[in-house]
């Protein structure tokens, strides 16, 4: 059995990768929003922080009532309790990755967790 999983995502509005990759420590989704659209709900989480990476386009997030402009190359971390909603630009689509993981669960970073073979 291979110790890796590979998948390809399309340009669909939302692709969730947990089942496709057999993820056990994070949820990852790729999101593609047409110009002028928005996530149709405000949400928060009980335990999971979210990390958003803007892949293309521009738009905004409203987090606890504060408007945060977003553009390609931006990265944003949102605490679990924060109420959030995302909007594509009026004339520009927005594509982003969302990584969701339990807050304070990281036991080490790349160098700390790596096993280097010599």
| Low-confidence spans | none
Backbone structural class: mainly beta
Strand content: 35-45%
N-to-C order of helices and strands? EHEEEEEEH
Topology:
Layout: E1 14-16, H1 18-21, E2 27-33, E3 48-63, E4 66-71, E5 75-78, E6 84-88, E7 94-102, H2 110-113
Antiparallel strand pairs: 1-2, 2-7, 3-4, 3-5, 3-6, 3-7
Question: Could you explain the architecture of this structure?
Answer:
This protein is mainly beta. The chain contains 2 helices and 7 strands. Strands 1, 2, 3, 4, 5, 6 and 7 form a 7-stranded antiparallel beta sheet that branches.
Overview features:
42% strand; single chain; mainly beta; 118 residues; 2 helices; seven-stranded antiparallel sheet; globular; 7 strands
Describe, in short, the structure shown.
With 118 residues, the chain is mostly beta strands. It is built from 2 helices and 7 strands, in the order βαββββββα.
């Amino acid at each position: 059995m291979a110790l890796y999983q590979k998948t390809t995502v399309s340009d669909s509005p939302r692709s969730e990768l947990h089942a496709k990759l057999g993820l056990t420590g994070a949820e990852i989704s790729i999101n593609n929003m047409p110009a002028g659209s928005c996530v149709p709900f405000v949400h928060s989480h009980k335990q999971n922080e979210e990390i958003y990476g803007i892949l293309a386009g521009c738009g905004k997030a409203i987090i606890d009532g504060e408007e945060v402009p977003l553009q390609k190359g931006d990265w944003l971390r949102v605490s679990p309790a924060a109420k959030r909603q995302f909007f594509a630009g009026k004339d520009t689509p927005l594509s982003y990755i969302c990584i969701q993981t339990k807050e304070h669960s990281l036991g080490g970073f790349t160098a700390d967790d790596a096993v280097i073979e010599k």
